[in-house]
C-alpha cells in the first residue's frame, strides 16, 4: 500500500486495482485538487461485454465514486480496425450496422454501474467514430504518424507476439495503436480529459497516447493500468469451458452469472470481493479468513453481491435461493436454465442446447466420463431421447428439461 493523498488513488490502491502508473505523484496531486476526467475504451465487437471487461467497468465506477468524471469511449471507429492485442488472428470486419447494434447492447451494462447526466462528475458516452472516420489520410500521417516509430511499435507485445508466432499482422491492425493514441489526444482537446485507464495489456497504447498529447499539444496526461485478472488455471478471466460469461442478460441469465462467481477458486475470493463488490474492507478480510469449507459462505456473498450490482438485488436473491434449493435441498429452484424439448431430443443435443457444453462432441465426451445425470441417475447413452426431467453436468450445473 502506498500513502496517496487523493481519495481516488487511495481507493484504487487499497482495493487492488493498480498495476502501473505513468506518474503517480503528478496524478495524485491533480486528483487531490480538481475533478479529473478519465476514460476507458471498449470496442464493439459483440452485442455484450463479458466478465473479462468487468474490472474496467468497476474502475470507471470507482473513478466516479471518488468525485471524478468517467467517459465511456465506444470504439465505433477502432472496431473497424481491430485491436491486435492478445489475438492470434485478425478480427472479422463488421458492418456499420453491426457495430451500431453492438454499441446499443453494450451501453445498457454501463447504466447499471455509472450515473449519467450533465453534472461535473456525471458519466458520458462518446463514440470515437465521430472523429476517426473523418480523418484525412495524408494530413493524419503527417501530423500524427510522424510521432510513432516502427522500431518502438515492434517492441509492443501486441505486435511482437503475433510476429514471433509467424502469424499475419495486417497493416490495418498495425494502425490500431496510432488510432488509440489519437483518441487520447482528441478527448483531451474536446473534454479536458487527463487520464486513461485500462488493463495491463494496454500499457503500450496508453503510453503512446500520453506521449502524443505532450508532443503535439504540450498537455500533461496520465495513465493507470490494472493487473491481469485470471482464472485459477491461469487462463484469462471471462472465458469458461461453456463459453464467455456475458454481462447482458440476453446472453447469460442472472442465475448462470451468479453460478460463475459461486464457482470462483478459493484463492481468488478475497481479491474478487475487493475488485467486484462494495463490501467494506474489514468485512472482506473477515470473509477471506473463513477456514476450510466455510469459504463457501464467502463465495455465496461474492456471487450475490456481484449479481446484485449487475442484475439488481431481487435477481441476485432469487439466484441464491434457487441455488440453495437445488444444491442443499435437492429440489428444483424456479430460476434454473430451462430447455423445451418438444417431442424429444437426444441427451447430447440437450446438453448443448441448454448451454452446458459448446458442442455435441463435447457433450458425448462428458457422457462417456460419467459426468451427466438425468434426474440424478448417471446417463451412459448419448443417443438417449429425453422429453423432461432434471439435467445435471457435474455437481454444479443443473437445468430443467420440459416437453
Automatic annotation (TrEMBL):
<dbReference type="InterPro" id="IPR036986">
    <property type="entry name" value="S4_RNA-bd_sf"/>
</dbReference>
<keyword id="KW-0030">Aminoacyl-tRNA synthetase</keyword>
<feature type="binding site">
    <location>
        <position position="239"/>
    </location>
    <ligand>
        <name>ATP</name>
    </ligand>
</feature>
<keyword id="KW-0436">Ligase</keyword>
<dbReference type="InterPro" id="IPR014729">
    <property type="entry name" value="Rossmann-like_a/b/a_fold"/>
</dbReference>
<comment type="function">
    <text>Catalyzes the attachment of tyrosine to tRNA(Tyr) in a two-step reaction: tyrosine is first activated by ATP to form Tyr-AMP and then transferred to the acceptor end of tRNA(Tyr).</text>
</comment>
<feature type="short sequence motif" description="'KMSKS' region">
    <location>
        <begin position="236"/>
        <end position="240"/>
    </location>
</feature>
<keyword id="KW-0648">Protein biosynthesis</keyword>
<comment type="similarity">
    <text>Belongs to the class-I aminoacyl-tRNA synthetase family. TyrS type 1 subfamily.</text>
</comment>
<feature type="binding site">
    <location>
        <position position="39"/>
    </location>
    <ligand>
        <name>L-tyrosine</name>
    </ligand>
</feature>
<dbReference type="InterPro" id="IPR002305">
    <property type="entry name" value="aa-tRNA-synth_Ic"/>
</dbReference>
<feature type="binding site">
    <location>
        <position position="176"/>
    </location>
    <ligand>
        <name>L-tyrosine</name>
    </ligand>
</feature>
<comment type="subunit">
    <text>Homodimer.</text>
</comment>
<keyword id="KW-0547">Nucleotide-binding</keyword>
<keyword id="KW-0067">ATP-binding</keyword>
<feature type="binding site">
    <location>
        <position position="180"/>
    </location>
    <ligand>
        <name>L-tyrosine</name>
    </ligand>
</feature>
<keyword id="KW-0963">Cytoplasm</keyword>
<feature type="short sequence motif" description="'HIGH' region">
    <location>
        <begin position="44"/>
        <end position="53"/>
    </location>
</feature>
<dbReference type="InterPro" id="IPR024088">
    <property type="entry name" value="Tyr-tRNA-ligase_bac-type"/>
</dbReference>
<dbReference type="GO" id="GO:0004831">
    <property type="term" value="F:tyrosine-tRNA ligase activity"/>
</dbReference>
<dbReference type="Pfam" id="PF00579">
    <property type="entry name" value="tRNA-synt_1b"/>
</dbReference>
<keyword id="KW-0694">RNA-binding</keyword>
<dbReference type="InterPro" id="IPR024107">
    <property type="entry name" value="Tyr-tRNA-ligase_bac_1"/>
</dbReference>
<protein>
    <recommendedName>
        <fullName>Tyrosine--tRNA ligase</fullName>
        <ecNumber>6.1.1.1</ecNumber>
    </recommendedName>
</protein>
<dbReference type="InterPro" id="IPR002307">
    <property type="entry name" value="Tyr-tRNA-ligase"/>
</dbReference>
Amino acid at each position: 500500500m502506498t500513502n496517496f493523498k487523493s481519495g481516488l488513488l487511495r481507493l484504487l490502491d487499497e482495493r487492488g486495482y493498480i498495476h502501473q502508473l505513468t506518474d503517480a505523484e503528478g496524478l495524485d496531486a491533480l486528483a487531490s485538487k480538481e475533478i479529473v476526467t478519465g476514460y476507458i475504451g471498449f470496442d464493439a465487437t459483440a452485442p455484450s461485454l463479458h466478465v473479462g471487461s468487468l474490472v474496467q467497468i468497476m474502475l470507471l465506477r470507482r473513478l466516479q465514486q471518488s468525485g471524478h468524471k468517467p467517459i465511456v469511449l465506444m470504439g465505433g471507429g477502432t472496431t473497424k480496425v481491430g485491436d491486435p492485442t492478445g489475438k492470434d488472428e485478425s478480427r472479422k470486419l463488421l458492418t456499420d450496422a453491426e457495430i451500431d447494434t453492438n454499441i446499443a447492447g453494450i451501453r445498457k451494462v454501463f447504466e447499471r454501474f455509472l450515473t449519467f447526466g450533465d453534472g461535473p462528475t456525471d458519466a458520458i458516452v462518446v463514440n470515437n467514430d465521430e472523429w476517426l472516420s473523418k480523418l484525412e489520410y495524408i494530413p493524419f500521417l503527417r501530423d500524427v504518424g510522424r510521432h510513432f516509430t516502427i522500431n518502438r511499435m515492434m517492441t509492443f507485445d501486441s505486435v511482437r507476439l503475433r510476429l514471433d508466432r509467424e502469424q499475419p499482422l495486417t497493416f490495418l491492425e498495425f494502425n490500431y495503436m496510432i488510432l488509440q493514441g489519437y483518441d487520447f489526444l482528441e478527448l483531451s482537446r474536446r473534454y479536458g480529459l487527463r487520464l486513461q485507464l485500462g488493463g495491463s495489456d494496454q500499457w503500450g497504447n496508453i503510453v503512446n497516447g500520453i506521449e502524443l498529447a505532450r508532443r503535439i499539444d504540450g498537455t500533461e496526461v496520465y495513465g493507470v493500468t490494472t493487473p491481469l485478472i485470471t482464472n485459477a488455471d491461469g487462463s484469462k478471466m471471462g472465458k469458461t469451458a461453456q463459453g464467455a460469461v456475458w454481462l447482458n442478460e440476453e446472453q447469460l441469465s442472472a442465475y448462470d452469472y451468479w453460478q460463475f462467481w459461486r464457482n470462483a477458486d478459493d484463492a481468488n475470493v478475497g481479491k474478487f470481493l475487493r475488485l467486484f463488490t462494495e463490501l467494506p474492507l474489514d468485512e472482506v478480510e473477515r470473509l477471506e479468513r473463513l477456514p476450510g469449507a466455510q469459504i463457501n459462505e464467502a463465495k455465496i456473498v461474492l456471487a450475490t453481491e456481484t449479481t446484485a450490482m449487475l442484475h439488481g438485488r431481487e435477481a441476485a436473491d432469487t439466484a441464491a435461493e434457487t441455488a440453495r434449493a437445488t444444491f442443499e435441498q435437492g429440489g428444483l429452484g424456479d430460476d434454473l436454465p430451462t430447455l423445451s424439448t418438444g417431442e424429444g431430443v437426444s441427451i447430447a443435443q440437450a446438453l448443448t442446447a441448454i448451454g452446458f457444453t459448446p458442442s455435441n462432441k463435447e457433450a458425448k465426451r462428458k457422457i462417456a466420463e460419467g459426468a451427466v445425470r438425468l434426474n440424478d441417475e448417471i446417463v451412459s447413452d448419448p443417443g438417449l431421447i429425453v422429453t423432461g426431467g432434471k439435467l445435471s453436468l457435474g455437481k454444479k450445473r443443473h437445468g430443467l428439461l420440459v416437453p
